Amino acid sequence: MLRYQINGGERNRSLSVVKSRGTAHSNQVREMTLSPEGVDLADVYPFGSEVLMGTARAQKESEEAALRQRLVKERLHEQQRLELEIEKTRGLIQQGQSELVRLQEALMNEHHDQTQTDRGAERHQDSILRRRDPGQGGQDQ
What we know:
4-stranded antiparallel β-sheet; two-stranded antiparallel ribbon; 2 helices
């Protein structure tokens, strides 16, 4: 069945199979176009409860392509933002590791200084004890 459908001031041809005994067929309405190459049936382009044809179809396809392109750009932008955040975090980690090494070295130096101080205090204490009891210091050595 060939019909003319008028939508938005545009007339489009549609084709549908009303009855076909013993063969499988589509129940969908298809847009039929005439061109210098002949008759062509466009793929079904459902939108909601209707099938878009002609300019409405081209406009909707264009809108969807623009939306896909915008989403691709947004994803690319988000990926770039995340890559920058990763690099920033790596830099912070490297700074933190350098600071950790510096603090560990300072702690080791502090332990060494404390050990030296403790040894010096022990020697001083021993010296004082030897001076107080000269007999014991001289006899042990």
